[in-house]
Amino acid sequence: MDSLTFKGVQGGWTAPYLFQDLDLSVPQHTFTALTGPNGSGKSTLLKLIYKEIRPTGGVVYLNGKDIGAMGQKELARQIGFVAQHQHNDYAFTAREAVSMGRYAHGGRDDGTIVEQAMEACNITHLADCLVTNLSGGELQRVVLARALAQGGRLLLLDEPVNHLDVKHQRSIMKLLGRLTGEGYTVICVLHDLLLAQVYSDRTIMLKDGKIVAHGKTAEVFTRERLLEVYQVEAHQVHDPVLGRSIWLASHSGR
Q1: Residues near 171 by Cβ (< 8 Å), separated by ≥ 6?
Q2: DSSP strand pairing (65-66 vs 57-62)
Q3: 111-128: string of b/e by CB count within 10 Å (b at 16+)?
Q4: Low-confidence ranges of the chain (pLDDT < 50)
Q5: What pLDDT does 253 receive?
Q6: Any idea of the CA torsion for 152, 180, 193, 218, to the nearest 10 degrees?
């Protein structure tokens, strides 16, 4: 069953709208990378899902239900969102920050949901630490745990590993992969095409509001598409750990 379906969707910030007659389906329990150059529509697509932008035509379905007919609290109970830029200006503890994910449920918590979310993100040892004192990688895990505490099974992430070092990038990406194995559906905006190839099951590749390709990640990435979408020459390198080849930009390209 598809977790998310766009049918004839038109939308964007202003006319002429970036997306015109968009059709798209995302299967349940998959890790989908959303890729494309700047301005291709990656973040806008996420905003259409959680209704920061309303489509001017067509319908977005979540588990078969029109999200346009859903209130924001109902939507928040089904979708966890991790924004690109996180702010830690307020001195909440990590546990308090994660507990905010329960607001869509009226703040109700049976005492285990928040703890389970923290355990899933490996931050129980940070429970009483102020978020203002956390590292970037630690804060990102707190924000992800807050999204899990909302109780939804669809996770939307806008460049969740941007500005993190390699160790924390790897940690977050492996966690997202594990969550799909636990029944979550993950849609993640990624600029780093290497991370997309290594960790995602599927990839949606956008250019100028149009889907250039959508399918299994290994099938989406080709030399021709990387040249078309990113205007870069690419070559394949075999990774013995992954047991398959990945595409890398050639420094001698355009």
Answers
A1: 137
A2: antiparallel
A3: eebbbebbebbebeebee
A4: 253-254
A5: 46
A6: -130
Report yes or no on whether pTM surpasses 0.85. Answer: yes
- For residues 154 and 78, the answer to whether their CB atoms sit within 8 Å is yes
